[in-house]
Specification:
With 203 residues, the protein is of the alpha+beta class. The protein folds into three domains: 7-102 and 142-153, 60s Ribosomal Protein L30, Chain: A (2-Layer Sandwich), CATH 3.30.1330; 104-133, no CATH class; 166-196, Wheat Germ Agglutinin (Isolectin 2), domain 1, CATH 3.30.60. Helix content is 37%, strand content 19%. It has a five-stranded mixed beta sheet with strand order 2-1-3-4-5. Strands 6-7 form a two-stranded antiparallel ribbon. α2 (20-36) packs parallel to α3. The protein is globular. It starts with 6 loop residues before the first helix and ends in a 7-residue tail after the last helix. The structure holds zinc ion (2 copies). The site of one zinc ion has 6 residues, from α2.
Length: 203
């Protein structure tokens, strides 16, 4: 990712659209950069533990460089707008939570309504554009402590992502990461093939 691009641009380019959730994520990521005195992860120097899988996480990935593919984005499926970011180099971690109801503006509700529609007519499209403008202004300028709470925490850094051996599944012939494979009497099986033979879910 281009390091010279402003954080907001990075996030919008990565996420594909501009929406309130992404903007909140941008504010979280920028706060964390300042608070921990960090920039963007290059090689797993940073780890993000996120408790939601919605739009804001893309800002964390794009701006802080903690990504799903690199393995330094850990997802806990708690359905909470909470982001914990840790820096190995600084030996510090901060837990950031979005305040309940912080962005419950009437414009947010209308934006969600329009977002749910299959298609928008010209008038609605214009209204949505306008709403984004209003919400952008509100979210990007609201005092940080009205939007989020934060707390420095002790965090044992998870180890760097491991690269595991790839084994061949006896049924489909495709490769499967060793730690996700089943060793059965029929040989090594990947999870879908194991399940096709009536095995349980998971590893
Ligand atoms: Zn979005
Ligand atoms: Zn298989």
């Amino acid at each position: 990712m281009c390091k010279n691009m402003p954080p907001l641009e990075l996030a919008i380019q990565f996420h594909g659209h501009i929406c309130p959730g992404l903007l909140i994520g941008v504010r979280v990521a920028e706060f964390v950069q300042k608070h921990l005195d960090i920039s963007q992860d290059y090689d797993e120097e940073l780890v993000a533990i996120v408790e939601t899988d919605s739009c804001g996480v893309d800002a964390i990935q794009a701006i802080l460089g903690c990504t799903f593919g690199k393995g330094n984005l850990i997802f806990n499926d708690y359905g909470k707008s909470v982001y914990t970011i840790a820096s190995r180099e600084k030996g510090r971690a901060v837990r950031v939570a979005q305040r309940f109801g912080a962005t419950a503006f009437k414009e947010s509700e209308r934006f969600r309504q329009l977002n749910r529609k299959e298609s928008l007519n010209e008038e609605e499209t214009a209204e949505k554009e306008n709403l984004i403008g209003v919400l952008f202004e509100k979210i990007m300028t609201m005092p940080l402590d009205e939007l989020i709470t934060w707390e420095d925490i002790e965090l044992k850094m998870p180890g760097k992502a491991q690269i595991h051996a790839t084994l061949q599944c006896a049924d489909c012939g495709e490769g499967v990461m060793e730690t996700r494979s089943h060793k059965t009497e029929a040989g090594i099986l990947c999870i879908p093939c194991y399940q096709n033979r009536g095995g349980g879910s998971g590893v």
